[in-house]
Amino acid sequence: GARSNDRQTIQSIAVLPFANSSGDQSSEYLSDGITESIINSLSQLPRLRVMARATVFRYKGKEIDPGSIGRELQVDAVLTGRVLQQADNLVVQADLVNVNDGSELWGEHYTRKAVDVFAIQDEIAKQITDRLRLRLSGAEEKLVTKHYTENAEAYDLYLKGRFFQQKGTEEGLDKAIEYYLQAIERDP
After folding, report:
1. Is-above-0.70 flag for pTM?
2. Mean of the per-residue pLDDT values for the chain?
3. Do residues 176 and 158 lie in contact, with contact meaning Cβ atoms separated by under 8 Å?
4. Of 63, 65, 125, 169, which has the highest C-beta tally within 10 A?
5. pLDDT in tens, 133-160
6. Are strands 89-98 and 104-113 parallel, antiparallel or unpaired?
7. Smallest Cα–Cα separation from 79: which of 9, 6, 17?
8. CB neighbour class for 159 (10 Å; exposed up to 12, middle 13-18, buried from 19)
């Protein structure tokens, strides 16, 4: 009946390239990075078909109508967003649109200090994924449990640790362990 429609589980999604509203080309890596983080993050969800980066980046910089692109790509939902860098603040707007009827399923506005761009990128990708999980998988509890920490400081230390770990050097590894230990201290 009509009620089953709003319980509709989204099984496929396209994350369209987030628009860089800063009017500054040097911020471009930010909007692209956030888009890619979200694609990577979402593609780890079981039973969700996520359009590949190459597929969605064709639409970069074009005037985007989520409905028609969604139909073109044959997905249930489209995530659009914009990134604005103002002084030392980063403002990100993300919106999830139901391709079927054009309705907004979810929207969120984030303002963060732009000190640690990678932390912001990861955090926003993670929050969007967490919110989408509920929307996408009919709120399957199991999927929601992967919740890192409520402690922002611990999460920041964890990200720094991961950053150094990925350098693959011995010095990097020592630094990484140092940060991981600090993170655990903040939030066991």
Report:
1. no
2. 80
3. no
4. 125
5. 766 555 443 443 344 556 677 777 787 8
6. antiparallel
7. 17
8. buried
